[in-house]
């Protein structure tokens, strides 16, 4: 019951299942440190959807978001990557 209560508050649970799974798969395939553009291209989703999904997943897993030179947002997914079985 505790797990159900915790999972109900996850931001990623508010995403469409297909989007969440596509983004998680793209992050895993890309090695865990990604940009929203890379994820959108790999997952075959709109950039805005990829960005929203990355933000939700980062929030849920306490991953960090960093801005690189050139203003590309880099999702550093140490905790998230571990949860997905992705090593940095």
* Helix fraction by DSSP (H/I, runs of at least 4): 55-70%
Rg calculated over all Cα atoms: 12 Å
Q: Domains counted in the coordinates: how many?
A: 1
The CATH superfamily title = Winged helix-like DNA-binding domain superfamily/Winged helix DNA-binding domain
Number of strands: 3
Tell me the span between the first and last alpha carbons. 32 Å
Mean pLDDT: 76
Pairing-aware structural class of the strands and helices?
alpha+beta
Strand arrangement in the largest pleated sheet:
1-3-2
Characterise the protein shown here.
It is a single chain. The chain has 88 residues and is of the alpha+beta class. The protein has a single domain (2-84), classed as Arc Repressor Mutant, subunit A (Orthogonal Bundle). Helix content is 57%, strand content 12%. The protein is built from 5 helices and 3 strands, in the order H-H-E-H-H-E-E-H. It has helices at residues 2-8, 17-29, 36-43, 47-61, 78-84, and strands at residues 33-35, 64-67, 73-76. It has a 3-stranded antiparallel β-sheet. The chain is globular. Mean pLDDT is 76; it is low at 1-5 and 77-88.
């Amino acid at each position: 019951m505790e797990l159900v209560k915790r999972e109900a508050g996850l931001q990623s649970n508010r995403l469409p299942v297909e989007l969440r799974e596509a983004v998680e798969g793209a992050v895993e395939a890309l090695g865990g440190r990604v940009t929203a553009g890379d994820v959108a291209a790999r997952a075959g989703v709109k950039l805005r959807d990829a960005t929203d999904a990355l933000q939700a997943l980062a929030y849920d897993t306490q991953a960090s978001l960093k801005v690189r030179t050139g203003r590309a947002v880099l999702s550093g997914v140490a905790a998230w990557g571990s949860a997905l079985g992705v090593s940095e």
